[in-house]
Amino acid sequence: MTPDGIAVAVMIILLFPMGYFTLASPAFLLVKLDIQPVAQLLRGMFNAHFMVMRVAGVIGTLAFLLDGRLAAATGVGLLTVLAIYGRPWFMQRMDHQLSATDAGDTDAPRRLRRLHWNGMLCNAVLLAVLLASIPYVAMSA
Prior knowledge:
By secondary structure, the protein is mostly helical. The chain has one domain (3-139). 84% of the residues lie in helices and 0% in strands. It contains four helices and no strands. Helix 1 (3-24) runs antiparallel to helix 4 and helix 3 packs antiparallel against helix 4 (108-139). The longest helix has 33 residues, at 70-102.
């Protein structure tokens, strides 16, 4: 595979889960998060997103390292580190809000919604940075 082909493949591997999450997560804005199955589904979607980004990030980082693109590998590596270390932090906060909702805290769904918005915003920013970096990654060889 050509060097540019590797760069395109890595970008697609990273863009697919981020794009899917960007399209799927706003649907939860249309439902109440005090409904337990809905909140659990949202939790599962975030959990799956973090797990997929870990795998995609490791694959992307290794591909860029093997291709000799150290700057691109560093950028994707940082994204991978964020997915690996961000998951426990984020999921702990989400679990706390879910248990507070179960305990009858009427303010917990609002805090869960804020967490949802923050997760969507972080993904959107990372997706924008990744999209903006495509020309630079494709040109570096």
